[in-house]
Design a protein that fits this description.
The protein is mainly alpha-helical. The chain has 17 helices and eleven strands. The longest helix has 24 residues.
Length: 482
């Protein structure tokens, strides 16, 4: 660690003791038997997920405020603070603060966020090669300057979303002074939210690498996160009296919408993950689960590429069909559901050996599909109606429905909540969502820990152990079920 630069972090090292003490209160339960109801396992696994996620926040050997992607330091080496992964993880901490936490838990989780703010500000002001577009940092906070896929512009957007989420929570409890520390309306560029929003608003027109750190171009996932950050940032800037930036952010978000629309490919019938891609010619199916992640994480609840969008539904079905075809575990021993990977042509399995048919299902993607289906159930329940169209009809016919209901599904009809078929569709969406978590339950380690991937042939946990995003993803889908 560069002591002259990071010495102030020592002042909060004493918080490690508190964090360790907190972890003692989270005891890992006796693991539910796989024959027991899924709900039993979900309850037990939530405890495991919280404990393991907390263990990777300000971990021993890393700076206070850093979030390790995984404790794995070789084969593969994930002992880094990835801006994207950290933002997704810390957003779950904000969600926990919105829940029914004890005063002791709230104090510790609030300190986690404060530490994360300090560490993030150091990242922003460091001399990293691509500035705020730098994808990862060493665990001591210094920039990682080795060869890498850079820049990655989803990181600043996701980090801004997390801090904006926390700012709204602080504001709702009357803690405006703390909000101003996150976004200073007089000097926004000198605050964590302002710096990220300024970067997003001036860099979204530039190509970058995707969330998988492989493809170079303009990415649906990145742009959905950027749009959400700009819209929510505009709202906060306006509330704090910074009208010029509020107007600018909103204007840029509007311009982004036209670019995001370009990802829809009517000829193929699904949303493309990347446009203007300049590398990875073998990745030619145009299918990538990052689209569903982008829909979930970029959802602004204004209807723009919402989970219920026909184009999104068609994309989800195309992805499921593609992965079902290529993974042997989806066919063996009465598979409970479909394991979801990154994209069909994936060549990465957690080692340095890249070759065709080498990719595996990923836990975080399988969790995301569960969250997606439960989100659909909630959104349609609020709408009190489901409109069937030529584009989404196949999606609904793929749900686990009784034959008499499947036969009655016709494009052009709208199923109202008063129709018994409506509740059957809602139940089928939830059941389909459960099937993805049943896949996760089948293949994770007996003690509930999760590695990055599931071997496509054996179902064994492979690649980085205790991947932080897996645990954040579990908590995210768990929230959707409430």
């Amino acid at each position: 660690m560069a002591l002259a630069t990071f010495s102030h972090l020592k002042k909060i090292n004493r918080k490690r003791t508190l964090l360790f003490a907190f972890s003692l209160f989270i005891s890992v339960p006796a693991f539910a038997k796989k024959r027991e109801p899924l709900s039993f396992w979900l309850k037990d696994e939530k405890t495991v997920a919280v404990k393991r996620m907390f263990a990777n926040i300000s971990p021993k050997g890393g700076a206070v405020g850093a979030v390790a992607a995984s404790p794995s330091k070789k084969n593969p080496d994930y002992w880094y603070h990835w801006v994207r992964d950290a933002a997704i993880t810390m957003n779950e901490i904000v969600y926990r603060l919105e829940g029914f936490e004890t005063p002791e838990e709230r104090q510790i989780e609030t300190q986690m966020l404060k530490n994360y703010v300090s560490f993030s500000r150091l990242n922003q002001t460091s001399k990293a090669k691509t500035g705020l577009g730098e994808p990862k940092f060493n665990m001591d906070g210094t920039p990682f300057n080795g060869p890498w896929a850079r820049p990655q512009n989803d990181g600043p957007a996701l980090r801004a979303i997390t801090f904006l989420h926390w700012a709204r929570l602080l504001k709702s409890s009357g803690r405006k002074k703390e909000v101003v520390k996150l976004y200073d309306p007089k000097f926004p560029q000198n605050s964590v939210i302002g710096a990220d929003l300024d970067y997003v608003s001036t860099h979204w027109k530039q190509p970058c690498y995707d969330l998988w750190e492989e493809s170079f171009g303009f990415h649906f996932f990145t742009q959905m996160a950027e749009r959400k950050a700009l819209l929510e940032g505009s709202d906060l800037a306006e509330e704090l009296g910074d009208s010029p930036r509020a107007l600018f952010y909103r204007s840029e978000a509007k311009s982004l919408e036209a670019e995001i629309e370009k990802h829809w490919n009517s000829g193929r019938g699904y949303i493309m993950p990347t446009v203007d891609q300049t590398n990875m010619r073998y990745k030619n199916s145009g299918l990538d689960s990052s689209v569903i992640l982008g829909v979930l994480m970029g959802n602004t609840h204004d209807g723009f590429f919402a989970p219920t969008d026909d184009r999104v539904l068609a994309t989800a079905l195309a992805l499921e069909k593609a992965f079902w075809k290529i993974y042997p575990i989806d066919h063996a021993n009465k598979a409970p559901g479909i394991a979801i990977g990154r994209y069909p042509e994936d060549r990465y399995n957690g080692t340095n050996v890249f070759k065709p048919d080498n990719g595996n299902p990923w836990v975080l993607n399988t969790e995301a599909f569960s969250q997606f289906y439960w989100t659909l159930a909630a959104d349609y329940s609020k709408k009190n109606a489901i409109a069937l169209t030529p584009l989404n009809l196949s999606f609904f016919k793929a749900l686990p429905l009784k034959k008499k209901y499947l036969a009655s599904l016709k494009a052009g009809e709208t199923i109202q909540s008063s129709n018994p078929l409506f509740q059957s569709l809602i139940s089928a969406l939830r059941k389909k969502g459960d099937s993805f978590m049943a896949v996760v339950r089948r293949f994770i380690n007996p003690n509930g820990t999760m590695s990055e991937q599931i071997d496509r042939k054996t179902g064994r946990m492979v690649s980085a152990p205790n991947l932080t995003w897996n645990y954040a993803g579990f908590l995210s889908q768990d929230r959707t079920r409430q």
